[in-house]
Amino acid sequence: MNTRPRELNLNDGLADYAVVDAVSRGRHYPEPPPSYRSEFQRDRDRVIHAAAFRRLEYKTQVFVNHEGDLFRTRLTHSIEVAQIARSIARALRLNEDLTEAISLAHDLGHTPFGHAGQDALNECMRDYGGFEHNLQSLRVVDELEEKYADFPGLNLSFETREGILKHCSPKNAAELGEVGARFLNKQQPSLEAQLTNLADEIAYNSHDVDDGLRAELISIEQLREVPLFNQQYEEVRSRYPELSQRRVIHEVVRRLINCQVVDLVQTSMAELARHAPPDLEAVRRRAGPLIAFSDDMRERNLELKRFLRNELYRHYRVHRMSVKALRVIRDLFNAFFADPRLLPVEAQHKVFERQRNGGDSGRARAVADYIAGMTDRYAIKEHQRVYNPGELT
Ligand code: MG
After folding, report:
1. What is the distance between the alpha carbons of residues 291 and 294, in angstroms, rounded to a whole number?
2. Cα 78 to middle of ligand 1, angstroms
């Protein structure tokens, strides 16, 4: 029974093409609507209470968690994405709660050790269907979280799940059913999903600049060759010639975020006005996205990404960590796959259960789920416990 008071209109002022409760495709296991929250507030709240969400605090974004307390983690990254996504959503009269739910959930499937960890696990899983962090985030909310009496996972709304699944191979899409269909039909997700995807990019490009400078892996002099950075830097320098370096960096980073958000909002507003989609389904039926940067900003963004890839993500200190991460993940996978009895009892049960239904692929998937759920420090500790004879178990 819907106990929500009539006067509580949770969708006031939203655009016709925004996602609202009334047009939601609902949850896999039907539930009565929440009393004083929208369906998407409920999704967000379920994500916040998930164990996988708490573990994001101890997972690397670029820098390994214990390298310094000031660097971004997956948790602070997800919160920054939510902040940016909500600002954009409100400006475009889209559903803020939905963008927040997607933002906070989008990295739940990340392995320990950032992208190096995901690449390693993908390699281990090559013969068993591969490993993709995006799909894993969906697995976490659909299956792996064990909290509720009435269903596995978090039983999130279709629209939140649609936003979590940013990309997907045709093979996986075919197996996923409704939530994978758009990858086969070449259609779009909701505008809220589209904008959260770009908010993620704005967040990591900007905070990787900040963290990279803080770690002294990249320098301002190098960054000045990147036009997007240099423009903001020049403005700050000429306006505040006496400002300390730390504050200059923060000021530039915040302006970097702001100029991208403003460009995205303005470009998307114009696109929405031009195409005037009458409703959400019209948005989904389109072949291309309606939320976009201007051509100029997209180009500048690419330059910044290229710089970060070459100068930061491939820096020898980051590379060293990536190589170590690869070794840890590969060793753990090989040990657990060869002998699941090395696992804690509950995890063993899951591996054997999956194996009964799915053979070696099922066994491998359950081991990958276990490893993907680890924090950086837990993976390092497990590696020592499994491989180091001097380490107590
Ligand atoms: Mg992200």
Report:
1. 10
2. 6
For residue 134, report the distance from its CA to the centre of ligand 1, in Å: 10
Rounded Cα gap, residues 378 and 382, in angstroms: 6
Q: pLDDT tens digits, the chain, 393 residues: what are they?
A: 455 555 556 777 899 999 999 999 999 999 999 999 999 999 999 999 999 999 999 888 766 555 666 678 899 999 999 999 999 999 999 999 999 999 999 999 999 998 889 999 999 999 999 999 999 999 999 999 999 999 999 999 999 999 999 999 899 999 999 999 999 999 999 999 999 999 999 999 999 999 999 888 999 999 999 999 999 999 999 999 999 999 999 999 999 999 999 999 999 999 999 999 999 999 999 999 999 999 999 999 999 999 999 999 889 988 888 899 999 999 999 999 999 999 999 999 999 999 999 999 999 999 999 999 999 999 999 999 999 988 766
Beta bridge partners of 157: 27
CA dihedral 66, 72, 74, 75 (to 10 degrees): 100
Ligand 1 mean position to 290 CA, how many Å? 21
Closest CA to 275 of 94, 99, 16, 11: 16
CA of 265 to the centre of ligand 1 (A): 20
Query: Which domains, ranges and CATH numbers included, belong to the chain?
Result: 34-317 (1.10.3210.10)
Nearest to 290 by CA among 268, 312, 311: 268
Provide the 10 A C-beta neighbour count for residue 321.
20
Predicted TM-score (pTM) of this structure: 0.94
d(CA 204, CA 164): 17
Cα-to-centroid distance, 200 and ligand 1 (Å): 5
User: Nearest 10 degrees: CA dihedral of 156, 159, 164, 170?
Assistant: 110
Return d(Cα 306, Cα 312) in angstroms, integer: 10
